[in-house]
Amino acid sequence: MAPRIAVSAAALVLVALVSARPAAPADLTGTWRGPVSMDGETSEFTATFSEAGYFLLTYANNQGLVRTLELAAPGQIRFVPPGGGVMTLAVESIVKRPGGLSFVLHTGFERTSGGYLDQQYVTEEVDYALTTEGLQVRVVSRAAAYFGDKSGPSGGPRNEKVLQGVLKKVE
Questions:
Q1: CB within 8 Å of 36: residues ≥ 6 apart
Q2: pTM score, whole prediction
Q3: DSSP letters of 17-59?
Q4: Predicted local confidence at residue 26, as pLDDT
Q5: Lowest mean pLDDT among 33-42, 62-71, 144-153
Q6: DSSP code, position 134
Q7: Taking the CB of residue 36, how many other CB atoms lie within 10 A of it?
C-alpha cells in the first residue's frame, strides 16, 4: 500500500509543477485584440503571432501586394509603400521568453516631391507579456519628422508616446 501512496504523491507533485510552469512563447500563437490607451484616448489594437510565438508584421507595397513578415531575428527590409517614397523597417533586437516577447523596431520613411524632402523616423520598444487577464501590450514610441528643401530641413524629435492595454485571444 505504501508504494501506491508514494506514486500518487509523486504524480500530484508532477501535475502541480506542470500546471505551474510559465507560459511558453508559443502560447502567444494566434490573433489577440483589445482596447489600448495612449494620451488618454482608447482605440482597438490587434496583434498576431506565428506558431513559433513571434510577432507577425503585415504591410502593403505600392503594387498592392500585402506581405507578412515573422519578426524572428534582427534584420532590415526596404520597400516602396502605397503613395511612393521608401520605407525601411529594421528590427534591432528580439527577446523571446516564457510567456512573452519583446522587440525594438525602427521605421524610416523618406520621400521627395516637388523639390521637398519628407523624412519620418520612429523607434518602437514593444513588449508583450501573458498575464492572468490576457496579453499585456506596452509600446514606447519615439518619433522624429523633418521637412525641407535645398536650404535645409526643419522639424525634429517629437514627444515620447506610450501605448498600453490588455488583449484577449480571438483566434
A1: 42, 43, 44, 45, 137, 163, 164, 165, 167
A2: 0.79
A3: HHHTSPPPGGGG-EEEEEEEEETTEEEEEEEEE-TTS-EEEEE
A4: 53
A5: 144-153
A6: S
A7: 20
Q: What's the rounded Cα separation, in Å, for the pair 109 and 66?
A: 18
Per-residue model confidence as pLDDT tens digits over 78-128: 999 999 999 999 999 999 999 999 999 999 999 998 888 999 999 999 999
Q: Check: CB of residue 45 under 8 Å from CB of residue 167.
A: yes
Residue in 27, 38, 147, 166 with CA at minimum distance from that of residue 97: 27
Residue labelled with grid coordinates 482596447: 35
Nearest one of 56, 47, 8 to 129, comparing CA atoms = 47
Sequence-separated (6 or more) residues with CB below 8 Å from residue 44: 33, 34, 35, 36
130: which residues sit within 8 A by CB, 6+ positions away? 23, 27, 28, 99, 100, 136
48: cell is 498576431
